[in-house]
Amino acid sequence: MRRLIFLGLCFLCFPWAIAAAQSGGAPEWTTDSSNPQRDAWQRKETKISPANAGNIQLLWKIKTDNKTMGMQSFREPLIVADVHTASGNKTLAIVAGSADDVYAIDADTGLRAWQKKLKWSAATPPEAGEGRGFICTNALSATPVVTPTGEGERFLYVLASDGYLHTLNVSDGTENEAPVELIPKPYGKDYGLNLVKGVLYTMTGQGCGGVANAVYAYDTVSKKVISSSPPQGGLWGVAGPAIGNDGTIYVESGDHPYDAKAGLLSTSFLAFTFSNDSFALKDYYTPSNHEWLTKRDLDMDTTPVVFPYNGRDFLVGGGKEGRFFLLDSRSMGGADHETPLFRSELISNANMNFQTQGTWGSLAGWKDESGTQWVLAPNGGPTLVKFRHSYGATPNGGILAFQVRESGGRTILVPVWQSRDMVTAEPPVVANGVVFALAGGEFTWQTNDTEGGLFTAEQRIQRSVPAKLYALDALTGKELYSSGNQISSFLHQSGLAVAGGRVIFGTFDGTIYCFGIK
Amino acid sequence: MIKNMLGRSNVLLLACAILSLAQARGQAAGNWPLPHSDAEHSGWQKAETKFSKDTIAGQFKFLWKIKLERKAKDSVAFSEPLLAPRLINAEGFKDLVLWGGKDTIYAVDSELGTMVWQKHFDVPAAKGSCGGGPLEILVEPPRIINFGARRAPGAPLPPPPPPPVAAGSRRLGMAAGGGGFGFRGAYILTGDGYLHEQVLSTGADFAPAVKFLPVAGAASNGLNFAANVLYTATNHGCGSAPDALWAVDLDATDYPVTSYATKGVSLQASMGPTLAGGTAYLVTGSGPASEADQVYPNSIVALSARDLKVKDWYTPSGDGFALENVSPVAFIYKQQELLAAPGKDGSFVLLDRKSLGGADHHTALFQTPGISRTRTNGWGGMTQWQDADGNSWVLASVPGSLAAEAKFENSNGAATHGSIVAFKVVEQDGKVVLTPAWSSRDLVNPAPPVVANGVVIALSEGDKKTPAKLYVLDAATGKELYASGSEITTYAHMSGVSVGDAHAFFTTHDGTLYSFGIGIEH
Alpha-carbon distance A427 to B77, whole Å? Predict the structure, then answer.
């Protein structure tokens, strides 16, 4: 009987084991957006708070030899604590660069700990140049992942531009085993790696390199590579798949012909399970106006954020349209797959412009001391609704914050605050009551109305402006800190990592920055 | 008589053509770049998939309307909204419906019914009976962009697209560069005889205007375009312009202009000439014949493209008739190059484009019995399409009542004001003939019919006492599948219908643009 009770308790706890495993030890940032649920919430931050965020300063910066590929430069950094290096235990900031270089920086000193060039492993020889345009480049595009604390021996997994997965020792960057072909062809534009119970996940978007748009899994024990089927429209977002507390894999899909009977689910939220070396489509939600969204290229393009709510997972995602969707993991779209828990009104993008005015990237989610669940999102233009707190006009967008609330028997998202204006806000991070946001400075317009055609990557680079780091009060959005003119370059579809009082990110010119509290 | 009647009508102030730059002429979904769909005037939206006789009921409906300008004077000038989908500008992807007003081009979002851009031309108004009238427009067909195409690894890089041409180096007629999302052009012929070019996605000036027509105040009757040559016809003696067909070569930097003057013979060319196979086809009205000048009244005349030399003609035998103002349609039937055109006494003829009237220029391949009673002030157009079973059809709008001898396999009721009639093109005893298939319900001043995926979109334009009504008919039987209600509040006048991407568009005489169709949630 006691054994049964014990086993029962373990069963109840097991779905939350993933989160629990992350709660012990020093603060780290071991995967894109902090954890498999992609909530970008640094739960262990103690050094920086709303009270002292005004004292944030540039702690160090280091210029690397990173070679850009189109507009691609660095991926989101990882921060790994207690790494046994040749010169002692260190906290390392690990940043993957677009030309298959991996940089490990001592997070305390800003000195290089090690640097690794990932060798080309594909049978197809590498291409000269950076790729054509800014959609499909020859870049390493997936944020790496480090084995979370408590899940066995820790490795750094990096997916190189040739589609091969490298397993590196965190301490020195040496290869622990031979690279494995994870993506069938090079330059497949894969997105952030996720790692749960020894299985790595990624997905590919936009059919780059002739690679089918699918979710890919690599079992680190069996060494098998599996992909979902059938291929879809581009799978987003940049942070890679989000994985729920029960192991369900969530992605959003982009433009493509829609045929639910054939399993072609474009402009949708998709949920997969992975077991017995195969993917199965578990559920999906397709907005009822998906035909319009496809017509005007306003598709779903974010990594959704997953959070526990009332005993199960809820998720929130969005896209270029400028709306947000709150979904119940038990039934994301209801019986008809078109009925979410909550579909917001149009929050932004009155012009229905695919280029910049909706939401790109990923979101953040956190729970405050009162137990209220929050969801934050970057957006790229003026908003259409009133937020309780706002800080001036936002012609370029900024960060939006919502609360998840019960109202009239429904669970809804309520707009609470809207940040100051930011040029191309990247996905935010929450830590100890502070929201960290990068105004990436990227020129995101694609159409050249003066000369015709699309802006080239070079033209967009020339028109981009230096990034700025902001710290905001997580409850009100009030600005607590701005980096001013300390950052000299922009960044493209990248993000920041926060751990132990350090805020780390890399910019297009190859510089890695660390801001924080001394 | 016909000429006097036309002279009393208002004549175009501005004749405008939004014209194609690109040579590629695919018909992407939603594309309707030329009046009556294409240079051949087929009136057939080949790319339509959503409309069908099974989807119209319960789904086809009024979608939106937008008032574009003040009430326009009724004129002899034909106008038709044109469609340019999947354009891109700084505000994102746009699907545009364009229409020419008196002195302004309007570009409206074809899904939302909201204004995207408008371009006004400051040209002095023509005086007298030639003043006021809608613009004629043509748009550049879209480039076919395969968004799903990706280069396989190892495959050689395709050559980069030519960069956009710098603004200061642009001239009318040249490719804009910039790859698949480069500028597409729109040509506008203003009443001072100048040809302008606008960027289709924004309405901005593309290049300096050039002189096309030699006189100001000419009334342009329809425009057409093929192989980078733009055509228009002038009529009614407005602005001292002769009755003539004009062509301007946009490939040559000095833009040479050629013309074919009909020396007082009117041109029945509401939509401009019909173009096919390097030939321009005109329907002429009454007037003095001149063998020396190769002027043939009440005839179908074929002219060589670009230099407008008479190649051939067909004149019905006999006297005392006048060909009606019905635009012919060129098509291919079992490798035969054919032209369906108006015949004498309200009949329709099939002509061999290789020898329009045979050796004596009076012999058509086939002539129907009289179908319509000739009506003054009437205008119409013919349409050709092919169904899924490979059957070829010819349709025509009939602006008056049907003749007693007109018998159809399916009649959809008495048509005392006008109707749409449909023929099958078949081979009988080794000859190509038109067999009468169906006649529609009664329509008041029917616009030339448009066909899309087995349905006919038929606009009953109405008159000053009767508002316009839009109908959808089964293209195989003429059976009515849809009739608009009270959404259209006034009449249309010489308005064509365009169809694309499950929408149908037309304007009423008061400058209101309407959209009907199968909508989607926005």
Answer: 56
